[in-house]
Specification:
single chain, 346 residues, alpha/beta, UDP N-Acetylglucosamine Acyltransferase, domain 1, 2 domains, 18% helix
């Protein structure tokens, strides 16, 4: 039977501000592509082409970019939430789209290459009502943690625990498989959360729920530190995906219609987007990603930076470990260091 998916794309992204003041969290670029594109590509890779996206923050930007999904080889419909309904409440709102059979729920801002075919096969073999994809992490207190028994059945779950609550390194990735019967257990028209309410409810009812342990790459792009880590991980090849553009030297990718003047120093790994201009004497350091239509002035130095689209950096600017949002401008002869996040002109 056809498996459908719901991709959660309604988050406001408060922990990524100021980058998300005018950009919805799923549209935040990772190596010059919205993070949501990676989720859609992975669904298609495993033959899942029918999906619904729930929208809340800046919905027009997501809908304008993805449209009906045809450009990605999928079919996308949308579920608009005038006010947020929570993770499970948003799924309940899309019940008419999901209730035909087994369905997946994935985060639109999680970066992963999880094998969804193996995940679904596990779910079906266990005859599970709901299956949660789990992964082991060293820092586990920002995520719901889960304990499973020897048969992979979930026996305990705590959402974002305190130190005293920690009993497992297995964390909830926010990737779920459900049978349609699960939808009946979610109240309609109410704010309802998977981690805080729905999964604990299934445990109390002794429902057949299981945890699928994955060693695939996973990163919750939920804060600025994780956002930076996701960029580095992709440049280091941990996602196993092809980087955009042409590799002009080992570890250096340049997209089409970009002009790089003589005397520019490029250090790997780095990615430079489309229609950019890098002026003479500039230095683009390792782990730098430059978005489309950027202008980098003469003798400017960028080290470990993330530049979104349409950024302009004047001559003799020093940028170190910075993020510049769409259309940001850095005036000449200034220096910006250590973790600055800029979403306007400086």
């Amino acid at each position: 039977m056809t498996v459908r998916a719901m991709v959660m794309a309604a988050g406001a992204g408060t922990r990524l501000r100021p980058l998300t003041h005018a950009t919805p969290k799923p549209m935040v670029p990772i190596v010059n592509r919205p993070v949501l594109e990676y989720t859609i590509d992975n669904l298609k890779r495993h033959g899942i082409t029918e999906m619904v996206l729930n929208l809340y923050s800046h919905p027009e930007l997501i809908q304008r970019h993805f449209g009906d999904g045809r450009a990605w080889g999928v079919r996308i419909t949308y579920s608009h939430e005038p006010s947020l309904l929570g993770t499970a409440g948003g799924v309940k709102k899309a019940e008419s789209f999901l209730r035909a059979g087994t369905f997946l729920v994935l985060s639109g801002d999680g970066l992963t290459n999880i094998d969804l075919s193996a995940f679904l096969s596990f779910h079906r073999r266990r005859k599970s009502l709901g299956t949660m994809a789990l992964t082991s992490v060293d820092t586990r207190f920002d995520y719901g943690i889960t304990l499973t028994n020897s048969n992979d059945r979930i026996s305990r779950f705590i959402e974002k625990p305190l130190w005293s609550d920690v009993f497992s390194s297995q964390v909830n990735t926010g990737i779920y498989a459900f049978e349609p019967e699960a939808l009946k257990l979610i109240p309609k028209g109410k704010i309802y959360d998977f981690g805080k309410q729905f999964w604990p409810k299934l445990l109390r009812q002794r429902a057949p729920i299981y945890g699928f342990n994955t060693k695939s790459y996973w990163c919750d792009v939920g804060n600025l530190n994780e956002y930076r880590r996701a960029q580095r991980d992709i440049l280091d090849g941990k996602m196993g995906i092809r980087l955009p553009g042409r590799q002009i030297r080992p570890g250096i990718w340049v997209e089409e219609n970009t002009v790089i003047d003589r005397g520019v120093k490029l250090k790997s790994p780095c990615v430079i987007g489309q229609n950019c201009r890098i002026a003479r004497g500039a230095h683009v350091g390792a782990y730098t990603v430059i978005g489309h239509r950027a202008r980098i002035g003469a003798n400017s130095v960028l080290r470990n930076c993330i530049l979104w689209d349409d950024v302009q950096v004047a001559k003799q600017v020093q940028l170190d470990n910075c993020i510049l949002g769409h259309g940001a401008r850095a005036a000449e002869n200034i220096s910006i260091y250590e973790g600055a996040v800029i979403n306007l002109s400086v």
